[in-house]
Amino acid sequence: QKRLRRGVGGDERSGAEEERPCNRPRSLRDAVFEVIPEAVRRATGDGRYPVSARGLYYQVRPLVRKLTDRELDYNYFSQQLLPEYQEARGPIGLLYYDPRGYLHEPHTGRVLPLGTREVAGYELPVLVFNKILYVEKKGLLPMLQAAKLAERFDMAIVSAEGYATQAARMLLYRAHGESRCRLFVLHDADPYGYNIARTLREEVRNLGAEGVEVVDLGLTVGDAIQMGLEVEEFARVQDIPQGVKERLTAQEWEWFVGRQAGQNRWLSRRVELNAVSAPQLVAFIEDKLSEHGATAKVLPPAHVVAAEAAEAYRRAAWEIAERAVMEAVDMRSLVAQALELAGVPPALDGIYARLAARL
User: Fold this and answer.
1) Which residues are within 8 A (CB) of 41 and not within 5 positions of it... i.e. 6 or more apart?
2) Which of 26, 131, 143, 211 is most buried by a 10 A CB count?
3) Which helix (H) or strand (E) holds 218?
4) Pair 268, 257: CB distance under 8 Å
5) 3-state SS assignment for residue 122
6) What is the mean pLDDT of residues 25-49?
7) % of the chain at pLDDT higher than 70
């Protein structure tokens, strides 16, 4: 109260300023929603420039501090509040998310950074893959590539960093809607890995994909026990999300809830994907895909196969004929004679000066 009544020099503030605490938003969410329009205006220069989610965060944060004492976390802002705001009040046109993860296409070698701008401009390839595997640990990608899982199963792989970003969710939504891709997720055997699978499934559905199924391949506690993996103990300082907690088995409850070791601190158990050896993990993914009937290769329609075969035949014939002609004719000599007859090179006097003037 004393700070609110007095200014920098100790003068009494106006009555309107003294009542400011009564007008404070009731939650951090309310404060963020209130300041976003002004933050967008500042960050984009009144709509002239695009802004990243992180750039917008740095404009939102000081405005929020004027309205509440609670500190705004970037992940909470970018992954929860921004999507909620845009769902309620419409998209922020100049907003984009920086890439946090990559899509790796099979067969083509193409890699797509999963930023909102990159995903918006991405055209899903036709008849290249019919599955996408979301892996929460991007460090596992070289192992999966060495096993050629993507090529053998006609399956794109998303190598991510924990929770799926807005761009990743939009990509999965589009892949299901446009190409009828089946979606799978691979995660740690801990409460956060379980929540990654749960939120990914729910958020892709919320985007409007009818009949979409995000298949949880694991790793589950049961999988870890069956595989005889080494269990580690970790200090849990966050509550288990309610959507996860209400679906835990007795064994999972024992592992994840753990025992209390202080105020807001519990000793719990988990197994991370990194604890699985390469041969075990590859075999695990293969078995899980087979279990869910996801081993079929992409088979194009008959008319597409016939057309592609005819085009390949024509290309081969053209290359054979072209090679024969080039072997029979001294093409370099013919070109040199033609240029000489045409008076080439043309007059290029002053071209450097003209270029410098133009630039």
Assistant:
1) 47
2) 131
3) strand 214-218
4) yes
5) coil
6) 90
7) 91
Which residues sit opposite 186 in a β-bridge? Answer: 135, 218
- Whether 101 and 138 have beta carbons less than 8 Å apart is answered as yes
Within 8 A by CB and 6+ apart from 113, the residues are 99, 102
Q: 238: which DSSP letter?
A: S
Q: What are phi and psi of 267, to 5 degrees?
A: -95, 115
What is the model's pTM? 0.71
Q: Which of 176, 222, 220 is nearest to 198 (CA)?
A: 220
Instruction: Identify residue 199 by its one-letter amino acid code.
Output: T
Tokens of 142: 């070289």
- Residue 186 has φ and ψ, to the nearest 5°, of -120, 130
Q: Which of 97, 90, 207 is nearest to 161 (CA)?
A: 97
Contacts of 265 (CB under 8 A, 6+ apart): 235, 236, 237
Residues 104, 141: contact at Cβ < 8 Å? yes
Q: What is the pLDDT of residue 113?
A: 92
Q: Report the C-alpha gap between 204 and 194 in whole angstroms.
A: 16
Task: Please answer whether residues 55 and 82 qualify as being in contact, where contact means their C-beta atoms are separated by less than 8 angstroms.
Answer: no
Banded model confidence at residue 8, pLDDT cuts 50, 70, 90: very low
pLDDT at 107: 95
Query: Would you tell me how many other CB atoms lie within 10 Å of the CB of residue 32?
Result: 26
Judged against a pLDDT cut of 80, whether residue 10 lies above it is answered with no
CA distance 181 to 345: 56
DSSP assignment of 53-76, as one string? HHHHHHHHHHHHHTT-SSPPPHHH
